[in-house]
Amino acid sequence: MRRRPGSWDPLAWNGPWKGLLLAASVLGSCFQPAPGQTQTPVTIVLTPPSPVVGGNVSLAPQNPPQDFVLCSWYRSATAAETSRILTCFPHTPLVQQNGPAHTGLETAGPGCALHITGLTLNDTGNYTVQIQSPTSPGLGTVVLRVYGNEKSGSVSVGSGNVPGRESSEEPRQPCDADTVLWLRDGASLASSDRLVLSSDNRTLKVLNVTRGDAGAYQCEVGNPVSSIRSDNTLSVPCTEMLPRPTVTPNQTLVLENGTFTLRCNSSPSADTVLWLRDGASLVPSDRLVLSPDNRTLTVLGVTRDDAGAYQCEVRNPVSTKRSEPGTVTLAYGPESVRIDPPGPITLTLGSPLTLTCVADSIPAPSYRWGLNGTDTNQTGSSLTFNPMTLDHQGTYECRAHNPITNRTVSVCVTAGSINAPSSLMVSRIPLTPAIAETPTHPALGVGVTGSTGGPQAPPAPKGAG
Ligand SMILES: *[C@@H]1O[C@H](CO)[C@@H](O)[C@H](O)[C@H]1NC(C)=O
Ligand SMILES: *[C@@H]1O[C@H](CO)[C@@H](O)[C@H](O)[C@H]1NC(C)=O
Ligand SMILES: *[C@@H]1O[C@H](CO)[C@@H](O)[C@H](O)[C@H]1NC(C)=O
Ligand SMILES: *[C@@H]1O[C@H](CO)[C@@H](O)[C@H](O)[C@H]1NC(C)=O
Ligand SMILES: *[C@@H]1O[C@H](CO)[C@@H](O)[C@H](O)[C@H]1NC(C)=O
Ligand SMILES: *[C@@H]1O[C@H](CO)[C@@H](O)[C@H](O)[C@H]1NC(C)=O
Ligand SMILES: *[C@@H]1O[C@H](CO)[C@@H](O)[C@H](O)[C@H]1NC(C)=O
Ligand SMILES: *[C@@H]1O[C@H](CO)[C@@H](O)[C@H](O)[C@H]1NC(C)=O
Ligand SMILES: *[C@@H]1O[C@H](CO)[C@@H](O)[C@H](O)[C@H]1NC(C)=O
Ligand SMILES: *[C@@H]1O[C@H](CO)[C@@H](O)[C@H](O)[C@H]1NC(C)=O
Ligand SMILES: *[C@@H]1O[C@H](CO)[C@@H](O)[C@H](O)[C@H]1NC(C)=O
Fold it and tell me: How far apart are CA 91 and CA 95, in angstroms?
């Protein structure tokens, strides 16, 4: 079928050799090894050792017996007639009889050799020679490997699961390769504890990745006649497991309408930084401004909703880490300031009384108490006294001051005394509470007075209890 014009034509069956061939054939059969008779193993030498597609090869038995009568070549691992390529007889010129597996490209040569020309990859396979000789019959098989030219193919490094703690890269299967070598940044890699090659070298696994493993990976496949390096490289950046970031607000107590910033302190290898408040992700807006690297969040025109637990989340291809919350509290108040019990209060001589100032404020306010407009130097949230004289009646004032909002609110309660055996004066003032914009020093008996403003100017001291 593949017979080429001009190739060596075996002798015609009907030539003058016919009788000889028949005789040799019969003779040959006489030299079939008898049961138990050992056939000498025949070593077959390939020339060239690594034949390539399109080239020629010769398969020659090493040291063939001088007295061989015929030898047959088979395209298989056994001497099966269906796979017989040819049989030759050691005459001058050589006599070649083709078998069923002859393709037209095989010829016999001196010393029982087989020549094959115009090799294709299909010629790869087992070849067996059987030598018949009166003294030393032999049988040998060789594997012929026909190499493709790798330069006509292409090799590429697969993406593998890179980058990660463990990565592997798989080169695309080249049709025909004996060796696969790996290179990083052009230098060949030797396998080690951490660089694990699969048995065919086609998969490289990098364990316990370190910074030194970053680089451009290539593979090179080769056979004895050629080699080719992957035309792509796989860049493996060094990627670390991110440490947990931290969030630091520049102030933990913030003012309404004010501004504060939050900083996400994280490794530079985090390539995404996201923000959350109370576990919900934040979307940047006019009031929530991110720096270009997302690491600083600035909150403008603070409202009560901006208070909360802020977290940042950092990500890179191998890890995602979220910080502990950094809590920002809105400072406000004092609001709803009142004195308990509310006025007017009836004092009982000899019976101790405690006034408590209650305020809604963050942070907790400081308190000062005054009587009849005079500071008493008492600073707790409550004031306790034992009314023994008429001097204890009058207008009690609580000033609640928030140091962050710089806001002071003052309220008053009046106290008079009636329940004394000596019939002390009773409260003689209107009972309606009143709120004033500015601090007042009301007359005895004004119910409640509120005021806001700056720090108190301590009035002249006077005892209060
Ligand atoms: C292969 O053998 C043929 C015939 O013997 C010859 O013409 C050709 O040049 C040879 N090719 C090579 C590559 O050696
Ligand atoms: C190789 O063998 C396959 C199947 O046997 C056949 O399809 C193909 O055409 C052959 N190739 C050559 C170059 O002979
Ligand atoms: C050669 O023959 C052996 C045994 O039959 C077989 O295992 C092997 O695959 C064959 N090699 C080739 C290249 O066909
Ligand atoms: C596998 O790689 C090692 C180290 O680079 C090399 O020595 C060896 O020859 C390679 N083996 C194959 C089959 O490619
Ligand atoms: C990889 O790291 C683990 C844990 O750190 C260690 O147990 C293991 O021996 C390391 N393997 C190699 C090949 O260095
Ligand atoms: C915040 O701004 C709003 C509108 O400008 C204003 O009504 C409000 O009083 C301000 N609050 C404070 C605490 O300054
Ligand atoms: C926090 O940052 C904001 C905005 O930059 C600034 O206005 C404010 O004064 C800073 N607070 C402190 C305590 O530094
Ligand atoms: C910055 O934050 C925005 C909004 O959360 C997000 O869409 C973006 O991916 C982030 N960019 C970086 C580089 O972290
Ligand atoms: C406070 O005022 C009331 C009524 O004006 C008076 O009775 C009382 O003595 C005053 N107390 C002090 C300590 O000034
Ligand atoms: C607090 O307010 C008072 C009066 O309103 C002002 O004089 C003072 O400077 C303010 N202090 C601060 C720290 O803002
Ligand atoms: C309040 O304190 C100031 C300074 O500590 C002191 O001079 C004054 O006498 C005190 N007033 C009273 C009523 O105790």
Answer: 6
**Using alpha carbons only, how large is the chain's radius of gyration in Å?**
52
In the predicted model, residues of the chain with pLDDT beneath 50 are: 1-36, 152-153, 162-175, 421-465
Residues 161-188 pLDDT 10s: 544 444 444 444 444 567 788 888 888 8
**Cβ neighbours around 183 below 10 Å, total:** 18
- For residue 164, how far is its CA from the centre of ligand 5 (angstroms)? 15
Residues 127 and 45 in one domain: yes
Measure CA 100 to chain center: 61
Residue numbers of the domain that contains 396: 332-453
Q: Please choose from 7, 9, 56, 114 the residue to mutate so as to test ligand 1's pocket, defined by most ligand atoms within 8 A of CB.
A: 56
Of ligand 11's atoms, which has the minimum distance to the CA of residue 375?
Answer: 13
Task: Tell whether the torsion through CA atoms of 300, 305, 309 and 315 is positive or negative.
Answer: negative
Give the number of residues written for the chain. Answer: 465
Lookup: tokens for 334: 């004092």
The reply to whether ligand 3 has any atom less than 6 angstroms from the CB of 141 is: no
CA nearest neighbour of 130 among 48, 46, 64, 47: 64
Inside any domain, residue 11: no
Task: Report which protein residue has its CA nearest ligand 2's atom 14.
Answer: 122
Domain count, the chain: 4
For ligand 7, is residue 259 a contact (CB within 6 Å)? yes
Distance CA 97, CA 74 (A): 13
Q: For 129, how many CA atoms within 13 A lie in the half-sphere containing its CB?
A: 33
Beta strands in 92-165 (DSSP E): 95-98, 106-109, 113-116, 125-132, 138-144
Q: Check pocket membership of 192 for ligand 4, CB cut-off 6 A.
A: no
What pLDDT sits at residue 382?
95
Same domain (yes/no): 77, 123: yes
CA–centroid distance, 194 to ligand 5, in Å, is 8
Residues within a 6 A CB radius of ligand 1: 55-56, 117
